[in-house]
Amino acid sequence: xxxxxxxxxxxxxxxxxxxxxxxxxxxxxxxxxxxxxxxxxxxxxxxxxxxxxxxxxxxxxxxxxxxxxxxxxxxxxxxxxxxxxxxxxxxxxxxxxxxxxxxxx
Length: 105
Prior knowledge:
Layout: H1 16-30, E1 33-37, H2 46-57, E2 64-69, H3 73-82, E3 88-93, H4 96-103
Parallel strand pairs: 1-2, 2-3
């Protein structure tokens, strides 16, 4: 699911963006493997933080595998900090090439 990068994500509004965000939330809640590629979680991006936190930590009964791909260690740390440690198995990668190399294993 691709959620388009936009500055204002008024989730309560009706329309295509709200529909996409609701689909993204639903799919994150169902997923067993999640790859977050290039996400930085800017301090002002409350909506994306909420989406990831709710999607990954929502009443999980089994472990979800989360792959974080970002060259910036502080961005990877910011994402890891919002994930529920009791249900998330987190792997971090510094670039897409490193991440893709592990997908073949």
